[in-house]
Amino acid sequence: MIPLPSREIAPGAVHVPGWLTLEEQRRLVRACREWATGPVPIRHTVLPRGGVMSVRTVCVGWHWQPYKYTRVAEDVNGRRVADFPEWMVGLGRRALTTAYGEAAGYTPDTALVNFYDGQARMGMHQDKDERSAAPVVSLSIGDDCLFRFGNTETRGRPYTDVRLSSGDLFVFGGPSRFAYHGVPKVYPGTGDPGTGLAEGRLNITMRVTGLR
Ligand code: SIN
Ligand code: FE2
Hints:
The protein is α+β, with helices and mostly antiparallel strands. Helix content is 15%, strand content 35%.
């Protein structure tokens, strides 16, 4: 097998372009479509001070709402979220093996599926509602985006801007696990409809909640 060129963006933060095959992307799109319909349908998350996120989100395994994880989506329809599938655990382990050369017991138990239309953005934030420092595995499908990967101290510089395309893997763990990151821009019309996603961008982040 020819190894894909990957780039270390910061210590512990690895970008692997073109990691997912088109068939794997199609499978993920199908799975996300299914999750989007329920038991807890995809929706715009409402923030504690009344703001509404521009991305639409559906969760698997654990339900995320700002700023905690629960099994039941009290803020949507009171239903329990779909189970985290075993095949996604396998995918997460493969991602870690690609990024770091080993997966040492990595067992993600939640995934946040975010759908971005052409106008959606995500501000700089840390993923810190998990009680585990295990790496986050991010998979992108559809339109390209500008992904900003920063530092653990501030929302601002220094940061590195990376263009994430359909099929790309991005893993952040180790010293980069709690780095600020965000999506300042999506590039509409850049995705391959062959993924099954006619427009927009899908991002799936797998995490270990450390909850039980
Ligand atoms: C996130 O930070 O949860 C999403 C990142 C992305 O959409 O690439
Ligand atoms: Fe995040």
